[in-house]
TrEMBL record:
Belongs to the purine/pyrimidine phosphoribosyltransferase family. This is adenine phosphoribosyltransferase. InterPro entries: Ade_phspho_trans, Adenine_PRTase, PRTase-like, PRTase_dom. Pfam families: Pribosyltran. Homodimer.
Length: 202
């Protein structure tokens, strides 16, 4: 069942309000109140994954945006960035870089800690995964406070990468700085999200 508070198609994030695929993507997001903590409205993308056509629409929209842009690497954030990132990377001919939670990667790593809507966490990336000057896109399912994306951008920039954009299915207004600024930019990098939750009372 998909709750009617599901995010709306983004109006101004560059993907075009009229794209008919966005309604199906929006309809396939389930909002679960009070998960994993009281007060959190959890946006669950798993119903979308059960609809292959809708899942493909979401991946295709990212691929259409990033194909031909000289993107060398798609960096996916554990865990839900691992669902969308590899498909996008393969389709645009880029490598996939997993940005993992602590102590999962066996080699030398860069580490960045960050604050979450419901806790704190850390991301790690293998040293040598990306070369200085390579163009990268960061992929995740959702941006809320932007803390996770900020940590991902910091990791890539520490390795000398050129982070072109961050790509998410859902943008939630959990902003710590003025709304307009933060929705479109995270550490100076643009955020492209297919859906947004503006005006829904979050
Ligand atoms: O914009 P932010 O406030 O940083 O929140 C967004 C992050 O939160 C969720 O992951 P979570 O940390 O819950 O990890 P999980 O995917 O491993 O459950 C989501 O998949 C993003 O990575
Ligand atoms: N409200 C939310 N729903 C799903 N994932 C999240 N990550 C951070 N906030 C979230």
């Amino acid at each position: 069942m998909v709750a009617d508070e599901a995010p709306e198609a983004a109006k101004e994030t560059g993907c075009g309000a009229a794209d008919p695929r966005l309604q199906g993507i929006s309809d396939a997001i389930r909002v679960v109140p009070h998960f994993p903590k009281p007060g959190i409205m959890f946006n669950d993308i798993t119903p979308l994954l059960l609809r292959p056509g809708v899942f493909k629409d979401a991946v295709d929209m990212f691929v259409e945006r990033y194909r031909g842009m000289g993107i060398a690497a798609v960096a996916g954030i554990e865990a839900r960035g691992f669902i969308f990132g590899p498909a996008i990377a393969l389709a645009i001919g880029a490598k996939f870089i997993p940005l993992r939670k602590p102590k999962k990667l066996p080699g030398d790593v860069f580490s960045e800690s960050y604050a979450l809507e419901y806790g704190t966490d850390c991301l790690e990336m293998h040293v040598g995964a990306i070369e200085p000057g390579e163009r990268a896109v960061v992929v995740d399912d959702l941006v809320a406070t932007g803390g996770t994306l900020s940590a991902a951008i910091k990791l890539l920039e520490r390795a000398g990468a050129d982070v072109v954009e961050c790509a998410c299915v859902i943008g939630l207004p959990k902003f710590k700085v003025p709304l307009f600024f933060f929705f479109f930019f995270c550490r100076g990098q643009p955020i492209y999200s297919l859906l947004s939750q503006f005006g829904k009372g979050y």
